[in-house]
Amino acid sequence: EEQTCSWTETSEVDPALKEFTYDVGDGPKQFLAYVEPDVSSFYQEPEGSRKKVIPKFNGFAAKFINLSNKKVKHYWEGNGATVLMRFYTPFSSGGTASFPGHRFFFTPENEPDVRLKEWVVEDYPAGNIMVYDPYLVEGDEEKTEANLAVLSTDERELYDMWQKTLSFHEQYRNFTGRSWLANYGTEAPKNFMWRSDYFGQTHWVTTKETHFAEVPPADLLEPISIQPSARILKDSDERTLSEYRVKGQSTMNMTLRALSCAPRVFEIENFLSEAEIEHILELAGGINLKASTTGDVGSNSNRNNEKVKPEEGTKTRTSFNSWVPRERSPVLDAIYRRSGDLLRIDESLLRYRGDDEHPEVPTKKATCESLQLVHYGQTQEYTSHHDFGYSSIDDPYNGARFATLLFYLNEEMEGGQTSFPRWVNAETFRELQVVPKAGKAVLFYSQLPDGNLDDFSQHAAKPIVDGEKWLINLWVWDPVYET
Ligand SMILES: O=C(O)CCC(=O)C(=O)O
Ligand SMILES: [Fe+2]
């Protein structure tokens, strides 16, 4: 068989995964936890030869947990203003990117003056997880148990699941130095993850989805079928609209280059061709972009936790965006297939599937979101945030965003870099900045190889100083996408 990527499949375990023993109350168990390697290894140098530089940026993910059977309101208090963030349904969690010293509080749903619990965010990682538990009497199990008697059996089950998660979190943090931001029981990602062992590490992967050399005529760019049976391509099948692609090329190589090891960030030059960019921007011309609404890192359980409209002046995201489904055009479908090859994720996982396609995956739905088209004008930005959210404690799959692919559609704007302020390195306290270049893709993972959410994946789109920025992004989930 012809080799299609630089990575040979082996049973080798990622050396950053270390076994530790924990106990959440039902006996000792083993877990393979991600332990951040010594920074020297990122430079391929002997252990201890380099020292990690503490970044100037001191923000991180603050996760709030409502361990009560009542709906509560979550407020942020800062800069002299009190801002309602969102509602939390019973036993749900949510979060936001925060900084040491920030103040938050919970109130009952209809009593804004009653503060059920207040927090001042501490340093990382101590300040990661904020719990409101009205039943707990510190150091008195008997009284706590008596208080818990008000819970129904179902509520008690959720409460106990949270207790296991919190207990695991503490043991995991003692072992790894990081907070456990996922639910207890979350497994290692099912999807393939490219290794990023040292700066500049490269991987290559081939794709049959070669570049479009010209934009096909409009009548060939109509939406395609969503029927799984119409989507299956055998290896030997010709790719769609091949007469408009680069001539004489049946496969194309893509090279991933590691920009950061913790978090794992790669750049891929020339992922999109000029013609593909032209097509996407043409589509964009017919799309009515809306002001971006995301501001606080949500829990995935949007069905429960209503967000509230961010107040003017507190928006973390000032760009405009729109969702573009994969089936919108055959060229977009090709870009999804190429993205699947890049991530080494079967393309069928990135669309609605037939019964015989990946029956081991518990849903038929795509495990990714629609492409998101984003436009930033002068001064617009997306302040530091995480792409992940928190799955509900009773989500049997613990689905969460896994990887983000950003595709830049233009270049030479001033500002507009994608920054990773917490990248682990031994040289500078400044953020890692990726400069947009037309056709370039950036890949980063929001999960760690042990299934935890990667707090260090925090990133921002720097404000546009001059010009504008166009980009599309693709969010891939693991193991399933649930809303
Ligand atoms: O615009 C960028 O460079 C980053 C965008 C981003 O972080 C997002 O859309 O989640
Ligand atoms: Fe993002």
From TrEMBL:
Polar residues bias locations: 292-303
Cofactor(s) essential for the protein: L-ascorbate
Region (Disordered): 292-319
Family matches, as Pfam families: 2OG-FeII_Oxy_3
Biased composition (Basic and acidic residues): 304-315
Domain Fe2OG dioxygenase: 367-478
Keywords: Dioxygenase, Iron, Metal-binding, Oxidoreductase, Signal
Gene Ontology molecular function, alphabetical: iron ion binding; L-ascorbic acid binding; procollagen-proline 4-dioxygenase activity
GO cellular component, one term: endoplasmic reticulum
Highest taxon in the source lineage: Eukaryota
Transmembrane segments: none
Name by which UniProt lists this protein: Fe2OG dioxygenase domain-containing protein
Native source organism of the sequence: Cylindrotheca closterium
